[in-house]
Amino acid sequence: MAEITLNSQALKHNLNIISSHIGANIELGAVLKDNAYGHGLEQIALLARDYGIKSVFVKNYAEALRISQYFPLITAFYGMPEGKFPKNIAFVINDKAHIAALPRGTKVELKVNAGMNRNGIESSEIYTFIELILQNGLELVGVFCHNGYGDDVDSAFEQGQKRFAEIKQEVRGLSQKYGFKLPRFHSLSSSGAVRAAANKGGISDDLVRIGIAMYGYLDVNFQNPVSANLQKVAALYADRVATRIAQKGARIGYSGCTSLERESVISTYDIGYGDGFFRVNERHKVYTKEGYQILPRSSMDCFSCLCDKHRICVFDNATPIAKAFDTISYEVLTRLSPAIKRTII
Ligand SMILES: *Cc1c(COP(=O)(O)O)cnc(C)c1O
Q1: A cellular component term (GO) from this record (predicted)?
Q2: Which residues are catalytic?
Q3: Which of 4, 32, 305, 341 has the largest count of CB atoms under 10 Å?
């Protein structure tokens, strides 16, 4: 049976590197959304908790419920709750309808648009939203934005940070005026956190939201002491289904796209596009970790290689796979089917 191994030492190592780079006074929040970037939500939650992580971010309420016993605070980026829910789940306010939908006493984080023009309220609406949040008896635990320019070497990143500094200033003023507890402030994901930490002045938020770097990836266009030292957490293994000796000229798989140049030993392995691994067709050249080509075309539940090993490592680094399919490591990882067995090593 195919398996994903999760290297607990690598995860710990990555969190150590990141936290020493960003500084001990900034809280390290872990982003566990989308099944912990395909790694397995419960498994990564356990490792993060054992490491001492206190705040995590997940995609929605359903993900938050699955790990609510592990952390003091779990923020659900999207969606609203149904029925009764644990007190330690915070919901994100992107719209007035979200305020109206939540029962009194619920923890909320207010998302503000700082230049990505995607989600969040406008900074001109902060006063109105905070007033509504207070009137509705919600507990404002955080105000945040998402700086989407951390990877790019232009000034948009600094502009986003400047805008967030103004937002923080306004919220501090409102907190003094209306006497509510100052919420936590956060704006940086992996690339932004690593970048801001290296800038003069360092990070001026309370917390950073670390996703991809925790899993061992940080492909950015600026020099930094983190990228090259990260270790990949996940590796995908496939097990042999069948082996045969096929004659020269034999055609393999759907439409017989591959035809053998010589008599060969050929095996199928139990990963296909139904398992969330991209479908390899005649336009892709994709190799397993040990260098066996995944022969086009792969099927829903298996692929073929010229090899007879019992088990092969499909990848222990998603980057070459991402390049072959013109995408990013995030997508290769998050697509991995939750049904594949995860094993912490
Ligand atoms: C996904 C996400 C992150 C984490 O981003 P990485 O690049 O994986 O570190 C942080 N904040 C928000 C709002 C996100 O959606």
Answers
A1: cytosol
A2: 33, 254
A3: 32
In the chain, residues under CATH classification 3.20.20.10 are: 8-215
- Closest-CA residue, ligand 1 atom 13, reads 146
Amino acid at 75: T
| pLDDT at res. 150 | 73
Per-residue pLDDT tens for 242-278? 999 999 999 998 888 899 999 999 999 999 999 999 9
Pocket of ligand 1 (CB under 6 A): 31, 33, 77, 146, 189-191, 209-213
Q: Is 163 annotated as a binding residue?
A: no
Which atom of ligand 1 is found nearest the CA of 111?
Answer: 13
Determine the 3-state secondary structure of 154 from DSSP.
coil
* Mean predicted confidence (pLDDT) in 24-44: 97
Domain 8-215, classified CATH 3.20.20.10, yes or no:
yes
| Amino acid type, 242 | A
Q: For a pocket test of ligand 1, which of 146, 203, 227 has the largest count of ligand atoms closer than 8 A to its C-beta?
A: 146
State the span(s) of the chain assigned CATH 2.40.37.10.
234-344
Model pTM?
0.96
Please name the residue whose Cα sits nearest to atom 4 of ligand 1. Answer: 211
Distance of alpha carbon 110 from its chain centroid, rounded?
Answer: 21
291 C-alpha to ligand 1 centroid (Å): 32
CA of 209 to the centre of ligand 1 (A): 6
118 is in an annotated binding site: yes
User: CB 310: neighbour CB atoms within 10 A?
Assistant: 9
**What topology does CATH give the domain 234-344?**
Lyase, Ornithine Decarboxylase; Chain A, domain 1 (2.40.37)
